Amino acid sequence: MLTIEDKTLAVVAALEDIKASDIAVIDTSKLSSLFERMIIASAQSTRQTKALADHVVEKLRESGETVLGIEGGDSGEWVLVDLGDVVVHVMQPAVRAYYNLEELWSMKHLPRAAN
């Protein structure tokens, strides 16, 4: 089982593999007891949105992690991957701008590892 930090890095790496853009990592540990990190990424098409979410699921399962749920795969505008203490949102830019999750969750971003 991965630590929260390792799980976060694994998700970010999986998103970068498929060229996600504007990846944001938000520490929600002091804001919610439901999860510790929220990761938000943008995709340029419904196809890429689904591919990014599928790749995150595949890579985390390869690491022995349990995926608790996947929502939104039918529309492809916004896919949520629930990894328990880490929640991943893959969104098309218009949907991301409309819901503005970064502002909603206070913009407390964690540093990302350099490539």
Structure in a nutshell:
The chain is of the alpha+beta class. It has helices at residues 4-17, 46-62, 93-99, 101-104, and strands at residues 21-27, 37-42, 69-71, 78-82, 86-91.
How are the elements arranged and paired?
Blueprint lengths: L3 H14 L3 E7 L9 E6 L3 H17 L6 E3 L6 E5 L3 E6 L1 H7 L1 H4 L11
Parallel strand pairs: 2-5
Antiparallel strand pairs: 1-2, 3-4, 4-5
Helix pairs in contact: 1-2
Characterize the structure shown.
- The protein has 115 residues and is α+β, with helices and mostly antiparallel strands.
- Helices cover 37% and strands 23% of the residues.
- The protein contains four helices and five strands; from the N terminus they run H-E-E-H-E-E-E-H-H.
- Strands 1-2-5-4-3 form a five-stranded mixed β-sheet.
- The two termini are 24 Å apart.
- The model has no long low-confidence stretch (mean pLDDT 89).
Defining key terms:
single chain; 115 residues; alpha+beta; Beta Polymerase, domain 2; 5-stranded mixed sheet; 23% strand; globular
Our count of domains comes out at: 1
Strand order of the largest sheet: 1-2-5-4-3
* Mean of all residue-level pLDDT scores: 89
Radius of gyration: 13 Å
Which secondary-structure class do the elements indicate? alpha+beta
CATH architecture: 2-Layer Sandwich
The level of helicity is 25-40%
The CATH class assignment is Alpha Beta
Q: In angstroms, what separates the terminal alpha carbons?
A: 24 Å
The tally of strands reads 5
Approximate shape = globular
**Beta strand %:** 15-25%
